[in-house]
Amino acid sequence: MISGSMVALATPMYADGSLDWDKLHDLVEWHVEQGTRALVAVGTTGESATLDVHEHLEVIRRVVDQVAGRIPVIAGTGANSTTEAIELTATAAKCGADACLLVTPYYNKPTQEGLYLHFKAVAKAVNIPQILYNVPGRTAVDMLPETVARLSSVANIVGIKEATGDLERARAVIDLVPEDFAVYSGDDATAAELILMGGHGNISVTANVAPAAVAQMCEAALAGDAETARAINQRIEQLHKTLFVESNPIPVKWALKEMGRIDSGIRLPLTELSAEHHGVVRDALRSAGVL
């Protein structure tokens, strides 16, 4: 089971929006060095919605090749078409990904039965560990704990990224699924508490800029050391808030540029961080000790 800090890796781009493979290489090496336990390639923070299919799969392939088995690579392969999700997941498996992360189908707002059948179909079609991803704030569909429990009986559906930020929801999921089904936080602000209540890790935006601190926080929480986990979380909690002053990944990409780790590129309809927010994000980086 994958556990601990898993970074939802930003995809570096030049100012013109083309992909910056050198900076992607540098980010991967930095995360391995800093103690990140797994990389999530081309999730929401990786701008999966703005990359074309070739770019999407090339990012996965390059990350897998570079990591070379040192830590797991989880490929974002969700789609609102079941056929497309199967195709992306199958290709990610061929690229050597260790697992796939599949968001609930967005925009078309399926029923709970539709969600169950969608994820079951992908799992049946592709023999790779699969992690569900529930983020109703982005997708306009909420996968209920009872549906997650049904899916937990599918052999290669191994976990869920629960990104509602609602700890009561997380508790309901944890109580309903088997012990070997991983429940991950998808909300940095509540991640430490979710792990302390029985979760298995954090698929993190904050880890893009503070990988060592998020990794240490997760390890302490997994060990049941609530005091240490909460103390580390307190040091970086300003980041949890300010990295969402505009839609993710706008603030985190600006923060990485400010740290000198990537160029300014981001693709429309996303835009660079508004100048009015520069100061607060910069202050959060300084407060966390990463700038």
UniProtKB/TrEMBL annotation:
Xref: Pfam families:
DHDPS
The EC number(s) given in the record are 4.3.3.7
Catalytic residues per the record? Answer: Y133, K161
Q: Which residues bind pyruvate?
A: T45, I203
Top-tier EC class: lyase
Catalysis performed (reactions): L-aspartate 4-semialdehyde + pyruvate = (2S,4S)-4-hydroxy-2,3,4,5-tetrahydrodipicolinate + H2O + H(+)
Q: Name one GO molecular function term.
A: 4-hydroxy-tetrahydrodipicolinate synthase activity
Which keywords does UniProt give here?
Amino-acid biosynthesis, Cytoplasm, Diaminopimelate biosynthesis, Lyase, Lysine biosynthesis, Schiff base
Q: Where in the cell is it found?
A: Cytoplasm
PROSITE patterns the UniProt entry points to:
DHDPS_1 (PS00665), DHDPS_2 (PS00666)
What are its GO biological-process terms? diaminopimelate biosynthetic process; lysine biosynthetic process via diaminopimelate
Q: Which GO terms describe its cellular component?
A: cytosol
* Gene3D superfamilies, sorted: Aldolase class I
Tell me where it mainly resides: cytoplasm
Q: What's this protein's family per the entry?
A: Belongs to the DapA family.
Q: Which HAMAP family match?
A: DapA
Q: According to its UniProt entry, what is the function of this protein?
A: Catalyzes the condensation of (S)-aspartate-beta-semialdehyde [(S)-ASA] and pyruvate to 4-hydroxy-tetrahydrodipicolinate (HTPA).
Q: What is this protein called?
A: 4-hydroxy-tetrahydrodipicolinate synthase
Instruction: Name the species this protein comes from.
Output: Microbulbifer agarilyticus
